[in-house]
Every structure is written in structure tokens, then in C-alpha cells.
Amino acid sequence: MTKSYYRGVIVAAGGILGCVAIGAMFSLPVFLRVISRDTGWSITGLSSAMTFGFLAMAVGSIIWGNLSFGFYRNDEPPPFCGGMCRVKSHWKAIGAVFSGCALLLALCARADQGSHDVQSASFFRRAAVEDVEAAWRLLRDNHPGAAAELGDTDFLRNLHIAVTTARDRAKRVSTLDGYLAVMTGFDSNFGDRHVRAVPMFNISRPDWVGLIIGLRGTEWMVVDEDPWPDRPSLLGVHLLSCDNRTATAIAKERLGGFRGTWDIVAQRGLAAPWLLIDEHNPFVEQLKQCTFGTGTGEVTIPMTWTPIARDAIIGRIQKAGGSGAAGYGLRRAGNGWWIAIQEFTGNAPAVVASAQEQASELVSAPFVVLDVRGNGGGSSAIGDDLAAIFYGSAARQLSDSDDACPEAWRVSPGNIARLESYPALLGSRLSTEANLRFRADIEAMRKAIAAGRVFSRPVDCGGPTHAPRRVSATNGPRIFILTDRVCFSSCLIVVNHFLQLGATQIGEETNADTRYQENRREILPSGLAMFGVQTAVSPGEPQRVGPFVPRHVFNGDLTDTPAVERWVVENAASWVASR
């Protein structure tokens, strides 16, 4: 390698390194919001880092200039400087120019930081205002309950309360945290977890105090904890109050106002682990101290909040919610049988097929447990197929009664587009019967549009057609349906059908739903969230479906499957005798 060529390599390498370095500095504003979201660092802090970078450049340019000059004697300039750097004073001037530019950039970065904070606040405020209006229009124009013809005054009142509150809060939003609080507060008014905002982003680093709360019965209890400086272990103790307010009052404000419907006990239990986790909701104050009841008295503890990665605690939060996981399968349990279906999707049809193959043994067994712990829904037709194994014609009659007052769709362009997408979306997974039903619904919707009607079918069926009734099962097994607080949507429909057919509910109180069906989601204008809306109504159903309360309550840990199974096997004989 010649000396001349070697010098060229060094110059090229220096140029590339310089471009990469300065490019990294100037790319920070482009990724500012993404970095802030993923790391939990504030935009102000990130902008300050850029400022310090420019200040370092200013100081470094002075040092670099003087060092560079020191390598040359007799005022001979560096080779890339030419005549402009002929004398020492010129070379020092160049260093001064670099220093001045770096200082100017630093000042601009600080000014841009303040401007960016203002722009960020304006963006999230505008996003909240626009998305609240979009969610309101989506409900007004597509949800069956918003149509005056249905006469659902409760839904119309809740919609008015929700949009009025959300509009007021949206005007005060300045961060993503505030935006998320507005949208989750908006959807907590409807008593239907299908109608809700689904954020594209979550708070990546919430604050916590090292404690996770669970709702056990009516008590707010510490069910998980991390060691904390200068604090005794609180595992297993009861939370009594915070900041001179009862634990229930605090929970109603923080959980009932933003994480579910307060009067549904199951939703309280599912939300309970978030009670002492702060996602920077600007509409509630951060707790300062809480009082706990121990075996020897009461102890008041100051709340020392610290950030934690969401991924580090989300699994613990879900476990603290107290819901079980049935899994899938058919197996023997004592002298009875156990059918586990965690969702009425996926592997569920295979379980039903196995049950149909073992139908003679199932029907002759002393008892059968249908375990739906952790079941959030799916297709209720799977439950109907199971019911037919045990109840035969009675199950079919109950299923046929659904057709006496069939589902009616709210007429709107968005709803008919959703309905028409089902056959292509589901493809081969759609049964012939279901495909024919969808085709009939599409035809009814088109006729309603042509006639200017609000619903695809009549919604006045003369009142609820599904009055509870019992069907004798003396010639078959005793069916116990095992539920927990997760049971929702189609799971509730299946539980309702089995109870009407004569099954006995055991375990824990279920969640609750409404008679509105067929959920679709739309992306809101800001792109920060989607919003779900129900598009059809089952006129023959009561306004609220559930919660269903078990006849036999399991007071232990429903996530402990072996313990739950022992409880059932030990008590099944007495339960069967008491029917």
C-alpha cells in the first residue's frame, strides 16, 4: 500500500465515521416518540441528551482544533485545509467557528425541546378529542342500542354520560397516558366489554409499590409482592384504606371508572391487580399512604412508587386476577368424566368430537364436569353440540327457540360490509348451516336498506323468549358446569343453556354481557387505538346476560386444577344426591 493511498483510506474512514456520528445525533428527533414509548424515558430527558451531545461537540471542536494544529510545524496547514488554513490564526479561527456552530445547535436543540413538548401535548389532546367524537359516531350510527326504535333507554343514557365525561377529559390531555385514560374511561360505562377501546400502545413502564392486590371474596388482599426497603412483608394481609378512603372507594374510582363495570363482581376481580399499579392516569391522584390489616392489628405504610417494565409484571397481574385455565381434553375424574374447554374455538371441536365418540359412557356416568375456566367466548354452537350429547331433543328444542326471535342487525354501510365479509373471512371453517344463516342475514340487511328500515328484522318479539326452564335429566348424568370470573360472551350463552337444561353451576360467579352481538372494530382517526362496537341484537334475550352465580362455590385457588378436581370428586356424590 503506497503512502498516498493510505492517506486516502484514512480520510475516507474519518469521513464515514463522522457522517455516522452526526447522523446518529440528528436522527434522534425522528425516533424521539418511539424511544420515549419503548423505554419510558420522558421526551424532555431525551431532548436534553441531544443538547448535551451538541455541547460536547462544542468543547470537543476546540480541543480538536488545537490538537490538529499541534501536529504541523512552521504554520504548515493540514492537507485538506488549503490556503484557508495557511497561518496559525486562521486555524484557530476554524476551531472557533466549529465551537460557535455547535453552541448554536445546542441552543436550537433546547428551543426545539420546548417546542416539541408543546407539539406533543397538542397532538395527544387533538387525538383524544377527535377519537372520542369518532367513537361516539361509531356507536351512534352502528350500535343497535343507540337506535331509538329499540327503546334501550339505559344504553342511550350511558352513551350520553360516557361522551360528556370523555369530551371534558379530552380537553385536558397532554400525554399518551392521558389519552389512554380518556378512552378506557369512555368505554367503562356500557357494561359490555365488547364495546371498548383497544390501544395500539400500552404504558411500557408503569409505577408500582411492589404490591399486587387480588379480590378474594369481598376483601382486597395482597396476593403478590416484591421485597421493599424498610417495609415488612405484607403478603396475605388485607388492604383497608388509602389516604383516608376505604379500599373499596379507592377501587371504585380507579378500577370502576377506567377498567370495567363496577357492579359486575367478576370485572372487579379481574381488574383488582391494577389497584396499586399507576399508569400515570392524570384524572386520579397517586396514592400517598395505605393502611393494611394484619393478624396483630393495623399498619400504615407510605407508598414509595418506582417504575417497572410492564413485561416484568404482566404475568403476575394475570395470575393475581384469580382466573383458571381449563385447557382442552376429555378424561376420567373419579367415577365421572371431565370435559375441559378453555375457549369455544381452536381445539374445542376436537374435544366435542371425542365426547361424541364416548357418548354412551358419558351418558351412563354418575356425573360429568364441563370445565370452562378461562373461557372468554367463541362459538356457542360448540356448546350446543355438547348439550345435545346429554339432553338430546330438549337441547335441540332450546336451540330452535333461538330462531323464534332471530338476531337483527342494525342497518348501516359499515355493518353490512362486516356481515358480507364473514363468508370469505371464515372460508372452509364455516359450516354449511352457518353459511346459509349468513347469506340469509345479508339478504335481510339488503332488503332493510331498500325499505329504509333501521333493523334487518323485527325487534319486537313480545318480550324475552328465553324464560328459564328446567329439563329432567333423571335418565342421564348429573352435569356440573365449572365457571370462573373470565366466562364471557359465548361462554355465558352456553352456561345459560346448560342451566336451563338442568345442569348445576359450580366454582365462581361469571362475568356478564348484554344481548348485543357481532362485534367489529374500527381504527380511530389518530391511529392510537381501535374501538369495538356491537352491530346486532338478540331481541328475545334479556337486557343483561349473567352474571351467573354458582350453587356450589369453590373458595380456594381456581388456578389450581388438581385442587379443584379433588374438590369436585369428593363432593360430587353429595351434590348428585341433593338434586
What is the structure about, briefly put?
The protein is an alpha+beta fold and 579 residues long. It has helices at residues 3-39, 43-70, 88-142, 153-170, 176-187, 247-256, 265-271, 310-320, 348-357, 359-364, 380-391, 393-401, 413-426, 432-451, 490-501, 561-577, and strands at residues 197-199, 207-208, 211-216, 219-225, 238-242, 245-246, 277-278, 289-294, 297-302, 306-307, 328-333, 336-341, 367-371, 408-409, 478-483, 504-507, 513-514, 516-523, 529-537, 544-545, 552-553.
The fold-level CATH name of the largest domain is 2-enoyl-CoA Hydratase, Chain A, domain 1
Residue fraction in strands:
15-25%
Strand order of the largest sheet: 11-12-13-15-16-21
Largest sheet: 6 strands, mixed
Rg computed from alpha carbons, rounded to a whole number of angstroms? 32 Å
User: How many domains comprise the coordinates?
Assistant: 4
Assign an overall shape: globular
What structural class is derived from the secondary structure elements? alpha+beta
Low-confidence stretches: 82-89, 109-116, 465-474
Per DSSP E runs of 2 or more residues, the count of β-strands stands at 21
CATH architecture designation of the largest domain: Alpha-Beta Complex
- Helix-residue proportion: 40-55%
Report the top-level CATH class of the largest domain: Alpha Beta
Note the total helix count: 16
Give the end-to-end Cα distance, rounded to a whole number of Å: 97 Å
Look at the structure and give the mean pLDDT: 83
CATH homologous superfamily label of the largest domain: 2-enoyl-CoA Hydratase, Chain A, domain 1
